């Protein structure tokens, strides 16, 4: 049965690493898996990603940032996510709308009602079956992200911004606990992967 799994967390939490690990587990169990990411996932959505993350260009105002994210998401859902689910595949997406609630809602302070309206317009009934939240103190994740080279626009925010992102995610976990599996991403990679393996085994047993 097709499943839509999303992976969330702050900068450098290990989302891409976890996505690859989960995919290898699911594929070894005989499942077909589509890996994708947000913002991005289609040529147009990747162009919008470049615009959103560019640290040198014109800075989008908050509403423009929000609408660009949902424009990319609309394209991504229509071109990649829904077709893969319709083919019966598992889709593992590196970030999705929980990131919008955490970054644009929690950290930028945009109206949650507006985000919810856009979510309904763009996604209809589409929601992740499960969200993996890789939770860690922002300073740990930023150190990992900074080791990689030039920082994107989101990686240049003050520390208080990332604290609000983290609180935004954890606030959503408190209100909808069944939606999330929270993993302590400050532990070593082996520890994270052991937990991810248990999660994958649990899905298969359902
Ligand atoms: N954004 C938004 O504002 N609103 C939205 O709705 C959406 C996104 C969808 C781009 O996302 C930006 O878009 C994002 C929010 C905004 N902000 N930023 N920046 P992104 O997902 O592309 O960017 P990111 O969060 O910076 O991802 P990342 O830096 O690629 O990190 P990651 O995927 O979580 O981590 P990783 O690449 O797997 O690992 C980072 C390094 O740490 C790497 O060297 C690993 O080998 C290492 N690692 C991983 N796990 C561990 C453990 N457990 N221990 C030690 N080292 C580890």
The global form is globular
Which structural class matches the secondary elements?
Answer: alpha/beta
Strand content: 5-15%
Overall pLDDT metric: 96
How many structural units, i.e. domains? 1
Distance between the termini: 11 Å
The name of the CATH architecture is 3-Layer(aba) Sandwich
SSE order, as H and E? EHEHHEHHEHHEH
Give the name of the CATH superfamily. P-loop containing nucleotide triphosphate hydrolases
Cofactors, ions and other ligands in the entry: ligand Z5A
Main beta-sheet strand count, sense and barrel state: 5 strands, parallel
CATH fold-level label: Rossmann fold
**Rg calc:** 16 Å
CATH C-level name: Alpha Beta
Oligomer: single chain
Percent helix among the residues?
A: 55-70%
Tally of contiguous helical segments: 8
List low-confidence stretches: none
SS elements, strand count? 5
Task: Write a structural description.
The protein is of the alpha/beta class and 206 residues long. The chain has a single domain (4-205), classed as Rossmann fold. It is 56% helix and 14% strand. The chain contains eight helices and five strands. It has helices spanning 15-28, 43-53, 62-86, 97-107, 112-123, 138-146, 159-175, 189-205; strands at residues 3-9, 33-37, 90-94, 130-135, 180-184. A five-stranded parallel sheet has the order 2-3-1-4-5, with helices on both faces. The longest helix is centred in the middle third of the chain and has 25 residues, at 62-86. It is globular and about 45 Å long. The mean pLDDT is 96. It binds ligand Z5A. Ligand Z5A binds at residues 9, 11-17, 38-39, 53, 69, 94-95, 99-100, 103-104, 144-145, 152, 154-155, 185, 188-189, 192.
